[in-house]
Structure to design on (1170 residues):
């Protein structure tokens, strides 16, 4: 027993009793012959007080104490003369009678405070020290709490948590697999799962009815800021259900989480078609915390000798409320912003709906006040608003207007992190056409069922077929997605065919699934949530890295353990492998 | 909505209402113009009744129905004339008005019944059909329930569930690693974790205080019956604790599980030293459901011109109660059993303590009745008992007697699967000497702390140093193990030194851990339970394979998905790898 209480536990009611605490030295200060030490553990901070005249031996130990030393202290609890209202333990302190240093500490490479002086790289290298900081640890405590709340909810709903294998089989579809050479099966490889998709479908064929798992998944992709080679999914599947059953079940889970974890009541989630999301928000993950919908002004603005508009496929606009007083400088900055390659607009036209009822636009010489009034009406703008127009190819301008909308939302403070607006985006296209490879790809995955009413289009206009697929979007973040699945082996074969698989390839890769469908497969559907994203949303963070205990950097490296790393020659030999570096080819 | 109720739900109280059920056709029989179908889902079986004269259309569908067809049926619930007491739904049946075939089924390759006619291989190939069988599914439902009970318990005790990385770093210590080539870091590899050992220790350094995770671990070992390349651990670690704190916490968890899952109260777990376990049970995982302790008869039996005993280092015996009437044939069979290579005895001596008070042994010509009486007394044998003696090298004879004890326990029915006798085995040796490589290996792992009172022996007699290490053993099965950890970088260096690491190797492999210990590491200790084994113990099964949804066979293959398998040349090229098959060397 290293302690009788934790550093977050003692209150006035403990006054007079002898206690032992253990923890880290947060700080030490000397004042009028007394030394004060703030002792920290996971549960809180307690003030220890040493009377420097009380014991020479104790005083000796005290002199050597530095930040982050691990100590054990015993003494009586007493009321503090100057209370600290910021600490739950702020009414008391320990009058230390005995002190033991359990572990000394070198000076940490950065300060272990809520706001650290350490940069990203050094904090990642010493992640175990970074994790000592309250905000970092709190993110991971939140993660643990959320995982437990999710499991309890799904457990109560009779979902069976089932572990699916990590060593599976490489498939050419989807992202790049991580592979694992097999020693016992020469020249062969396992793959790490990008998701347990086929296994959860097989569990439905097996009659498991309701499956879930919080599970690690793996993708060997070039990493962007918000990607990790290993990430965690809340993976679910249900049998004998239709799309609505899945949406209702997981809307229930999501509401439960908001209530249980954040004590927030969220309203019923609206459903929005993919087509509407793209037209109104320029995004398949619309942030509906604010409106500022995209308006199609193509018909309104064309035909006035302004060739930029006249030649464009599409002219769209958003209306930023109360921004008519934007300065030239602000407007220029916005114009530059939309011209960046990742936004891709050629330029921007603005229309100020001045407070006095007049209009001022960047294209005044082409349009009369009356014409401009029509723009304002089409946008539902009122005096004081600012209308921003982009023109060009329709799909890319919708994207650009979607991005501009978010930028304006940010500038206007419309994206409060403590407001949560979930919605379901539904009716995604089944297939995407890829110009480069001249073939269709599954937008969700090859197991997604087309809408029954669109099946006839599979032969004539596959690009127009809608899927029974859905995404849960919260505050512009795609939190999860899923679909109703194909459960008929012939329709599944036809899908593989459409996706350019030969019969042999389909058989080699997914023969077991199509075979399973021949023995009585129930209708089924499922969903997977990105757990890392969900936690970071709840934590009010922008990156998933902050909710992962030991994340990897953008090169897929764990800089703390220095991995990946070369392996021994005998390991390579046992695996029948030879490394052939690119330089040597 | 494919159903209004499940197949396990309807009772007399539902009589008269119209319901829709969906599920699999378990069986179909015709009787007096009526057709009866047992409809099965995960929740149970409900009898559907079709009046063959009611509807020609319905009757037509009915004729085509085969086993394992997935159907949806609608009709009214009515009381059954002949009730079935074996079914919870046995009081009612559905009078079917409408029937829809959702999925037909080919004839399954084996019967989907509690006792199947399918052999192991075919059931593994069609695992999704095997999982439909009640006993198989129930094992996995048990697993899910146990996981949730474990998490709830640890959650209540303020353990933080923290995910540790799966893509880590290969280390030469321990079993063989599975490795994962990195595409982004040429010629370098990740390894899959054999356990999250160092990460959980780093979480203690980080102040997490109480960590747990139910986590997949990986070992590339040649597979025995009860091993899988991927397996699941309940992995835990605590800071500011001593051995007793860990034992108490996880004894509490284990008792909770027995109570919550099996409604069994188990007594406090005895503690037994490794040395006592080896001497009395010939095993470091003693099955204490029965006594039959090993007795050392070396001093009692030596010196009677029986050279086999006189030349032996050790003569030990067990006393099998009430077996004095074992026949010649039974004794010969036992003798052959102990002479098998895996047991390794040269022969066996027996002593029958006959019911009439006389003795009969296989070495009567060397020993008088008085001498044999001494054996009996030394073994605490009474009239009617059978004493079995083995002689030879001490350590291997203790092993052999331990195995013989279990064999006799089995023959005497002393190993009831519904009796649970957990215990803690403690005070394991810190190190094992390996003759072949002429070096010490860590018995537990290199991070285990020696007992403080034995530290002085590290230099003089390292083989005698005991560790603060412990195993939880239940019914002769090692369920879990753990240890108090080293938290001092110097002692850790010394351990690596003892284990034959050079300074450079230790630094390269574990530098980050020794570095972490320099910044204030708390005393900590932990444990890991084999979750697969724990579930199979609770399920009354001998193999872990039956509690894993998609297990691999002894060659590490998943025969259902046919994995591992070759990968495409472009995948190998991207990974800078070339396969060099053994034959081609």
């Amino acid at each position: 027993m290293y302690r009788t209480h934790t550093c977050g536990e003692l209150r006035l009611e403990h006054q007079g009793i002898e206690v032992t605490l253990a923890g880290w030295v947060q700080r030490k200060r000397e004042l009028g012959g007394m030394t004060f030490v703030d002792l920290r553990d996971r549960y809180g901070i307690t003030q220890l007080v040493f009377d420097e005249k009380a014991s020479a031996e104790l005083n000796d130990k005290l002199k050597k104490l530095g930040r982050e030393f691990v100590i054990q202290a015993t003494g009586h609890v007493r009321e503090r003369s100057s209370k600290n209202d910021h600490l739950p333990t702020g009414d008391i302190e320990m009058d230390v009678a005995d002190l033991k240093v359990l572990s000394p500490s070198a000076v940490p490479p950065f300060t272990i405070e809520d706001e650290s002086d350490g940069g990203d790289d050094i904090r990642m290298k010493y992640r175990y020290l970074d994790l000592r900081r309250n905000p970092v640890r709190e993110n991971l405590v939140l993660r643990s709490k959320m995982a437990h709340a999710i499991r309890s909810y799904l457990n109560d709903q009779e979902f069976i948590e089932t572990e699916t294998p990590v060593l599976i089989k490489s498939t050419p579809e989807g992202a790049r697999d991580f592979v694992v050479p097999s020693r016992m099966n020469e020249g062969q490889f396992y793959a790490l799962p990008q998701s347990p998709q086929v296994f959860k479908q097989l569990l439905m064929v097996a009659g498991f009815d309701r499956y879930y798992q919080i599970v690690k998944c793996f993708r060997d992709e070039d990493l962007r800021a918000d990607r990790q080679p290993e990430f965690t999914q809340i993976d679910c599947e249900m049998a004998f259900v239709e799309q609505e059953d899945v949406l209702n079940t997981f809307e229930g889970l999501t509401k439960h989480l908001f209530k249980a974890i954040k004590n927030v009541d969220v309203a019923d989630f609206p459903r929005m078609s993919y087509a509407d999301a793209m037209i109104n928000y320029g995004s398949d993950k619309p942030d509906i915390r604010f409106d500022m919908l995209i308006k199609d002004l193509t018909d309104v603005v064309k035909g006035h000798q302004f060739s930029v508009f006249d030649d464009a496929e599409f002219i769209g606009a958003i209306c930023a409320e109360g921004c008519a007083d934007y300065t030239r400088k602000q407007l220029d900055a916005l114009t530059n912003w939309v011209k960046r390659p990742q936004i891709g607009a050629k330029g921007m036209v603005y229309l100020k709906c001045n407070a006095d009822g007049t209009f001022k636009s960047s294209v005044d010489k082409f349009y009369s006040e009356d014409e401009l009034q029509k723009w304002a009406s089409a946008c539902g703008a009122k005096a004081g608003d600012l209308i921003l127009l982009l023109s060009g190819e329709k799909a890319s301008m919708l994207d650009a207007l979607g991005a501009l909308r978010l930028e304006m939302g940010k500038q206007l403070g419309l994206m409060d992190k403590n407001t949560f607006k979930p919605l379901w985006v539904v009716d995604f296209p089944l297939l995407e056409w890829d110009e480069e490879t001249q073939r269709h790809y599954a937008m969700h995955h090859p197991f997604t069922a087309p809408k029954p009413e669109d099946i006839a289009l599979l032969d004539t206009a596959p690009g127009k077929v809608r899927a029974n697929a859905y995404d849960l979007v919260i505050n512009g973040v795609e939190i999860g997605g899923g679909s109703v699945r194909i459960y008929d082996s012939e329709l599944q074969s036809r899908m593989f065919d459409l996706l350019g698989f030969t019969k042999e390839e389909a058989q080699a890769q997914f023969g077991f699934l199509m075979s399973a469908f021949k023995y009585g497969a129930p209708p089924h559907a499922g969903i997977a949530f990105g757990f890392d994203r969900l936690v970071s949303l709840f934590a009010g963070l922008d990156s998933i890295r902050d909710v992962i205990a030991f994340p990897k950097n953008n090169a897929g490296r764990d800089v703390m353990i220095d991995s990946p790393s070369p392996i021994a020659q005998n390991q390579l030999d046992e695996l029948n492998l030879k490394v052939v570096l690119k330089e040597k080819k």
Observations:
- The CA atoms of residues 448 and 485 of chain A lie 5 Å apart.
